[in-house]
Amino acid sequence: MTSVLAHAGVMDGIYRHQRHIYDLTRRYYLLGRNDLVAALKPPPDGTVLEIGCGTARNLILTARHYPQARLFGLDLSSEMLKSADATVARSGLGGRIKLAQGDATCFDAGELFATSGFDRVFLSYSLSMIPAWEAALCQAMLAVRPGGELHVVDFGQQTGLPRWFGNCLHAWLKRFHVTPRKSLGDAMATLAADHDASMNFSSLYRDYARIGVIARR
């Protein structure tokens, strides 16, 4: 619990001011988010959870893509949730999007959202900011209903880009406590096998980003 509170404090410290310009700046380098939303395709009246929802940018885009879906967002940072609440209110989607503060590695969906699971769960550039990211990935999978899907997009290793670019990007990300997860694909493959699920995983934009889907049977 102490480590979780400490990490929450770090996140609040980073986003206390950055949350006001987050969406404006991140649009240029958080690539693949729109690809993830386009692939969600929840069933009619389906439920969608974003873990690490930030400003709710992805939730609002998802709500507009899938007007029958019900959306839920979880974030550890109280500062980011301030922006998320305001953004959802301005969008007029408050009746379809519910937000809650919680830890990605150990949350109770029933307690937070009065539901036992979701048709789609996704993490967009959040695993690279969660120290216990593998625990968060496992927890996300537990929140997926039978027949549902877990979607993930995050930084890759930039293997198809000049080495200097990858080195500079990683050094810059480190300033914001962001660590691209080199073994993300392996971790998702293991998780899929443990749950007797299928997985698709690929690189985007010359391995700038990596995107994967685990589908429960």
From TrEMBL:
The keyword Protein biosynthesis does not apply. One of its GO terms (molecular function) is methyltransferase activity. Residues 48-148 form the Methyltransferase domain. The keyword Disulfide bond does not apply. Keywords: Methyltransferase, Transferase. It comes from the Bacteria. It holds the Pfam family Methyltransf_25. One of its GO terms (biological process) is methylation. This is Class I SAM-dependent methyltransferase.
